[in-house]
Design a protein that fits this description.
Elements: E1 7-12, H1 17-25, H2 30-38, H3 55-61, H4 65-68, E2 74-77, E3 82-85, E4 106-109, E5 123-127, E6 138-140, H5 144-152, H6 167-194, E7 199-204, H7 206-214, H8 227-234, H9 236-254, E8 260-264
Parallel strand pairs: 1-7, 1-8, 4-5, 4-7
Antiparallel strand pairs: 2-3, 5-6
Helix pairs in contact: 6-7, 6-9, 7-9
Length: 281
């Protein structure tokens, strides 16, 4: 007989709270609306606000920037005189789930900027499936990623393509986000239905990637687009958020009835005005 409830943590990478508020008010995010009515919600404050990447190491180490020092995924390593990807071997920090009792079953899925999994973990670990920010494909135990691929197909989110965008590339970004949100929800539901977890932590990263490109249409000339394409692209950002809300609804429905569910986003998103205010010269 278990004497503890499951804790379900579902993250949404880089979602803008003001946009969520508008979509909730407009009936586009019914899962979030229902969770707000049943529980509590509030706004997180990031400090300092400039280094947004720091919020994920702050989250999983429970330490502020001055303690963990992971302000980006690549840091200057003085002894080697070069930038290197952060590694626990040279910048050690303990993640909060390692403090749990060894009997606790843990699932950690696509946590941005997460370090490599420990040598031993009573559970499963996946990274690089649909993260926007990660250290590459990681898994625990060995073969876990392959098992997911056999059950759910290959990851829908493809490697990021930088540079000038077109209507077609933006449409492709929209499609990848919608498909990835649905696929990742299926993975989460699959694992929740297979066994009961003491800690289940999963972060949706595709909307971070996608809304970088479809936040607005300033990157393309919309005058020559047909009305269907123009309308689809104008609604793509809100559609990405709504698809995540639908994915979240599937996960909440699959969670144990007595589970404690926390849905969170550690930072938002807005139009990129460049770095001129920091580097005026």
């Amino acid at each position: 007989m278990r004497d503890r409830s499951s804790v379900i943590l579902i993250g949404m990478d880089a979602t803008e709270i003001e946009l969520i508020d508008r979509l909730v008010a407009g009936g586009r995010m019914p899962t979030i609306a229902a969770l707000r009515q049943r529980g509590r919600y509030g706004r997180l404050q990031t400090h300092p606000p400039v280094f947004l990447s720091l919020v994920w190491p702050t989250f999983y180490t429970s330490q502020p920037l001055g303690h963990h020092g992971w302000y980006f995924n690549k840091l200057w390593r003085a002894e080697h005189q070069r930038l290197e990807y952060v590694s626990p071997q040279w910048l050690p920090n303990r993640v909060f789930w390692e403090a749990l009792h060894p009997s606790h079953r843990v699932a950690v899925l696509d946590l941005p900027f997460a370090p490599r999994p420990p040598v031993r973990l009573n559970g499963v670990y996946l990274n690089g499936w649909q993260c926007h920010d990660d250290f590459g494909a990681q898994e625990y135990p060995l073969g876990f990623r392959g098992a997911l691929r056999r059950r759910h197909g290959r990851a829908r989110l493809r490697p990021e393509v930088f540079g000038e965008q077109t209507a077609q590339t933006l449409l492709a970004q929209r499609r990848e986000v919608l498909e990835t949100n649905a696929q990742f929800a299926g993975i989460c539901v699959d694992l929740l239905e297979r066994e009961r977890w003491d800690l289940f932590l999963a972060v949706f990263g595709a909307t971070h990637r996608g809304t970088h490109y479809v936040w607005d249409l300033s990157q393309i000339d919309t005058e020559d687009l047909d009305e269907t394409t123009r309308s689809t692209l104008r609604g793509a950002r809100d559609e990405c958020y709504a698809s995540w809300d639908a994915a979240l609804g599937r996960i909440v429905a699959a969670a144990p009835a007595d589970a404690r569910v926390l849905v969170f986003s550690l930072h938002g998103m807005s139009t990129n005005d460049g770095w001129f205010e920091y580097l005026p010269l």
